[in-house]
Amino acid sequence: MSLETAPDHIKLAVDLIALLEENEIPNETVIAALEIVLSDYRNKATNSDTPPFSK
């Protein structure tokens, strides 16, 4: 599968990884930040009528 035909969440993940690596963010900082982001988005998905990954 090419990135061009990949699902949006895969494209976003690849973009985020590239951004973090290009800026040489330490792994510990990335993991801590992503845990916060994941928690926030899970809370939003739980408290919203919009299913995750919808457009």
TrEMBL record:
Domain of life, per lineage: Bacteria
InterPro entries in the record: DUF2496_YbaM-rel
The protein, known as: Pleiotropic regulatory protein RsmS
Protein's organism: Marinomonas ostreistagni
Lineage of origin: Bacteria, Pseudomonadati, Pseudomonadota, Gammaproteobacteria, Oceanospirillales
Gene (UniProt): rsmS
